[in-house]
C-alpha cells in the first residue's frame, strides 16, 4: 500500500516545515514536495494540520496482576487508548510472581502482548 500525506506541517524535535510524506508498506520513503505519484496512491489532505511523530509511554502496566487484582487495561484496550491519544509505543513492565522466573514471566507477557495494536517493548 502507498499513502501520500499532502500539504501538512511536519513538526520534529528540531524544526517545523511544510512538506508531503510518501509512505510505502508502512514506512516513510520520501519527505518533500512530492508531485510525481506512483500508481494506486491513497492521499490524505493534511493542509492546516500538524504532523508529528507518535509518542512513547515508557511506564505502563498492561494486565498487571497485583495483590489479587489485575490492571483494568490489557494490551488490546490499553494500546487502542494510547493510539487514540497519539502514543504509538508503550514500554510495559514484566513483573514475575515471587516464585516465578523472569524468563517465565517474560513469556507470559509476550503472550498477552499478542493483542497489542501498537508497538510495545518491555
From TrEMBL:
Organism this protein belongs to: Marinomonas rhizomae
Entry-linked InterPro entries: Amidohydro-rel, Metal-dep_hydrolase_composite, Metal_Hydrolase, Metallo-dep_Hydrolases_sf
Keywords associated with the record: Hydrolase
GO molecular function (one): hydrolase activity, acting on carbon-nitrogen (but not peptide) bonds, in cyclic amides
Keyword Glycosyltransferase recorded: no
Keyword Chloroplast applies: no
GO cellular component: cytosol
Protein name as annotated: Amidohydrolase family protein
Recorded coiled-coil stretches: none
Domain called Amidohydrolase-related: residue spans: 50-108
Cofactor: Zn(2+)
Amino acid at each position: 500500500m502507498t499513502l501520500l500525506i499532502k500539504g501538512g506541517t511536519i513538526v520534529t524535535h528540531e524544526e517545523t516545515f511544510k512538506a508531503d510524506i510518501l509512505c510505502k508498506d508502512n514506512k516513510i520513503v520520501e519527505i518533500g514536495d512530492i508531485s510525481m505519484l506512483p500508481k494506486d496512491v491513497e492521499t490524505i489532505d493534511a493542509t492546516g494540520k500538524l504532523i508529528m511523530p507518535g509518542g512513547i509511554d515508557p511506564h505502563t502496566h498492561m494486565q498487571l496482576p497485583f495483590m489479587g487484582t489485575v490492571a483494568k487495561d490489557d494490551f488490546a484496550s490499553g494500546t487502542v487508548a494510547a493510539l487514540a491519544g497519539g502514543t504509538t509505543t508503550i514500554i510495559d513492565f514484566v513483573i514475575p510472581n515471587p516464585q516465578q522466573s523472569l524468563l517465565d514471566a517474560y513469556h507470559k507477557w509476550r503472550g498477552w502482548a499478542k493483542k497489542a495494536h501498537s508497538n510495545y517493548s518491555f
